[in-house]
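thread: overnight batch results

M.L. [08:02]
morning all. the overnight job finished for the chain we discussed friday. pasting input first so we're all looking at the same thing
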Amino acid sequence: MSQPQLSVANMPQSIYHGSGRFFEEFTLASAGQKGRSSNGGLGIWVTPDIDIASTFTEDEGFIYELLIADKPVKKVPLQWLMKTHDEARDIEDNQGLEAAIRFYDRIRVALIDKGFGQLWIVESDGSASTRVVLDPDDIEVLSVSRMPKPLEFKQ
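M.L. [08:03]
and the structure it wrote out:
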């Protein structure tokens, strides 16, 4: 299998992923582990906003700076994501976490089959600070930074 062509075309800023864990490669099996959520089945969640990424690092987590393969982007409104999460939550409540993960995976595979590499969640102001890379093989890690442990003040 050939390596995807990686570039920053159409992405004027860096892309980040925050995690409480250190890892060397992205996989769908470990996606969504922070809260053991099913939405990891949709892909790897990334953002151009390092502050958003840092909210997922826990106390001493990691910020990953990434290069993403230059593939077509599917833009969807935030309302689509909220509706999809509601559907997945219903599935999880009635059929369990693995069924909800399969639900997201079917969406992910359908988007890949249509040629998309990313899903951008578009907010009402037109920004897309939340993005999903559909195939972990489309991600190259440029750098990893450890977040400092928050200071504790004695009273």
